[in-house]
Write a structure and sequence with these properties.
By secondary structure, this protein is of the alpha/beta class. It contains seven helices and five strands. The chain is 45% helix and 22% strand. Helix 4 crosses helix 7 and helix 5 packs across helix 7.
């Protein structure tokens, strides 16, 4: 399945272009730029779906950044739907349970699960590779790991 996965943030969002288990491209861009890219068919390409991380409440108080993130996630969803592209919101807990079998998993646990999946016995060296010999996850950094986790989970389960 060809998809675009977005890990939204209050100012910037991580984006992964993904095709049946292969990372095609990745970036972290300002939200207004990501929103604009959803208007451009060359950017979305022939994606079957745009998958966006859904923010969920766990009963704790939240601040301005969370509300901004939710607002941007909604704008990304709306823009995709207006372009007649299937859009899905997937909760972070679903990703944690799928990749780590533990709803308490942290970012580092998710990153390690992805490295194990793509690197096998070669580990991080096989998964990330080097500039001269890039691996399947070469250059993935920061919140792009969360977008990749979203892409892998949706690609393999089609949950929403």
């Amino acid at each position: 399945m060809r998809l675009v996965a977005i890990d939204p943030g209050p100012v910037e969002s991580a984006v992964i272009w993904f095709d049946d288990g292969t990372v095609i491209a990745h970036s972290i861009d300002e939200n207004h730029h990501v929103l604009g890219m959803l208007e451009v068919s060359e950017w979305v390409g022939n994606a079957e779906v745009v998958v966006i991380e859904k923010v969920e409440s766990y009963g704790m108080s939240v601040g301005k950044d969370i509300f901004e993130t939710v607002w941007w996630a909604g704008r990304f969803f709306d823009r995709a739907v207006r372009r007649f592209i299937r859009a899905e919101m997937v909760p972070r807990r679903t990703v944690k349970m799928y990749l780590c079998n533990d709803s308490r998993a942290k970012d580092g646990n998710i990153r390690q699960a992805l490295i194990d999946r793509y690197g096998g016995i070669g580990g991080v060296k096989a998964a990330k590779g080097t500039k001269a010999n890039p691996g399947p996850l070469y250059g993935i950094a920061n919140d792009e790991w969360q977008a990749l986790a979203l892409a892998v989970t949706f690609n393999e389960t089609e949950v929403s």
